[in-house]
Design brief:
Elements: H1 2-22, H2 29-48, H3 50-53, H4 59-70, H5 72-78, H6 82-89, H7 92-102, H8 105-110, H9 115-125, H10 130-136, H11 139-161, H12 169-185, H13 187-195, H14 217-259, H15 263-281
Helix pairs in contact: 1-2, 1-6, 2-5, 4-14, 5-11, 9-14, 12-14, 13-14
Length: 282
């Protein structure tokens, strides 16, 4: 399934580049390399490397694989500017349909910088339950994870990196504070995995022969907690940076708009604010 996903993504991206050229435009080499080398390359490295190979046998490979598919791979795919490419390649009804979808409530919710950390907290909490053991030992679930998790990650990353979502200063400030709180909360699943002395996923021991370097079930769970804790904390930092950049740009835009007002307009705006404040205090 991983090979199929890579081929489909590579072909669609190439088709977009060719469509832009047919329209008389040119697509930049830097995002192209970002998409193919960093994005698809990281996906292939995770899915066909150590983490993908031992995802069924080792807890720390399973949890680390999911965390990287959720955070790292989508962020690296986003360097290819797939939304910008799609808008440049499409015309007519397909472009209208794309813009309608990007303006939908679903994308608006995922464009909220708080959604990513909250989703990650809920998803990582599954590792504390027997559901994790069932998913890890199911080949069907393993294949589905390799497709669904990166897709969800893209829905979280692309609204933050490529879509301009109009926010008020108060809303951006609230996002920033909540995301900072999530920076601490996201560590909870990893900490609980690391400190618990019992096997939380209730998965049975491996009955087949395993390499000598395989850790014990408890040590496996502890390594899982260590890596999950580390990745969850690191992944929240780019979100805080993006929020800070968004806040700075919004502040500069508001300042520029105020500077462009005439004295009469500024006086009317001041009177309107004073009137609104007076109504609230009555």
């Amino acid at each position: 399934m991983g090979v199929v996903a890579i081929v489909i993504a590579a072909v669609l991206y190439l088709a977009g580049i060719l469509a832009v050229r047919r329209h008389g435009g040119q697509w930049r080499i830097k995002p192209t390399l970002g998409f193919y080398v960093l994005g698809l390359g990281s996906y292939a490295f995770i899915e066909f490397g150590f983490l993908g190979t031992y995802s069924e046998e080792l807890r720390f490979a399973f949890t680390t694989r999911i965390a990287l598919l959720l955070f790292a791979v989508p962020a690296l795919l986003a360097t290819g500017k797939p939304v910008e490419l799609a808008r440049a390649a499409l015309t007519g009804r397909p472009l209208s349909a794309l813009n309608w979808f990007l303006d939908s409530k679903l994308v608006g919710i995922m464009g909220n910088a708080v959604f990513g950390p909250v989703f990650a907290l809920v998803a990582f909490s599954v590792f504390l339950t027997p559901i994790a053991g069932t998913l890890r030992e199911s080949p069907v679930a393993q294949d589905a994870i390799g497709l669904i998790i990166p897709a969800v990650g893209l829905f979280m990353v692309l609204p933050l990196t490529e879509l301009v979502v109009v926010r008020t200063s108060l809303f951006i400030a609230a996002e920033f504070m909540l995301a900072f709180v999530e920076l601490v909360i996201d560590a909870i699943p990893g900490i609980l995995l690391r400190l618990n002395d019992s096997i939380l996923d209730h998965a049975g021991p491996i009955t087949t022969a395993v390499p000598l370097w395989f850790p014990s079930p408890l040590r496996d769970q502890q390594l899982s907690g260590d890596l999950l804790w580390f990745i969850a904390e690191i992944a929240d930092i780019p979100i805080l940076i993006l929020l800070f950049i968004r806040w700075s740009k919004h502040d500069r835009t508001e300042a520029k708009q105020i500077d462009e007002l005439t004295d009469e307009q500024m006086e009317e705006l001041t009177k309107a604010h004073l009137k609104a404040f007076g109504n609230r205090t009555d």
